[in-house]
Amino acid sequence: MKDIVIETPRLILRPPSAEDFSGFCELMADEVSARFIGGVQPPEVVWRTLCMMSGAWTIKGFSMFSVLEKQTGRWVGRLGPWQPEGWPGTEIAWSLLTSAQGRGYAVEGASAAMDYAVDILGWTEIIHTIDENNTTSIKVAERLGSACLRKATAPPPFKDKIWDVYGQTADAWRARRASR
């Protein structure tokens, strides 16, 4: 599983590794980029998240990818399949460094991850759990063809958090992909 590499026109998606720790720390140290993904976190907590995502590749056979700019090799975020225990569905999520936002990377990378989820993982539904105030991610979800399907309560440790669940079926994604 660790040999998986997905290339898009501008990005490389690959499973996270120890060399990505500084990028993960940068993501989670920035109030803007961390606002809707657990808030600012110290390196000790970020390390646990990196290990959790890396470990999910072994335990579940998938997890979020590290996102690298193809041109520079710079780590710019994490995105992809995500479904920890108690999660409200099979999610494609995204989180990018503030400096990488506004370039279309989230849509480009999430599209590739959705292809992977449908074609390789065999998912029948793709969701995106989004805070109702996260208008940027709502726009990304809508650009991907997802619509608000329902509300969901987040699992612990965020059990008091209610998310809007955007998403679509695998068939709807395949139809959208065929029309591009």
Characterise this structure.
This protein is α+β, with helices and mostly antiparallel strands and 180 residues long. The chain is 36% helix and 26% strand. The protein has 6 helices and 8 strands. Strands 1-2-3-4-5 form a 5-stranded antiparallel beta sheet, sandwiched between helices. The longest helix is centred in the first third of the chain and has 17 residues. It starts with 5 loop residues before the first strand and ends with a helix.
Write the layout of secondary structure elements.
Blueprint: E1 6-7, E2 11-14, H1 21-29, H2 31-34, H3 43-59, E3 65-69, E4 75-82, E5 91-96, H4 105-119, E6 125-130, H5 135-143, E7 147-153, E8 162-169, H6 170-179
Antiparallel strand pairs: 1-2, 2-3, 3-4, 4-5, 6-8, 7-8
Describe the structure using short key phrases:
180 residues, 3-stranded antiparallel sheet, globular, 8 strands
Order of helices and strands: EEHHHEEEHEHEEH
Tally of extended strands?
Answer: 8
Described by its quaternary structure, the protein is single chain
Mean pLDDT: 95
Low-confidence segments: none
- Give the termini separation: 29 Å
Helix amount, in percent? Answer: 25-40%
| Helix/strand/pairing category | alpha+beta
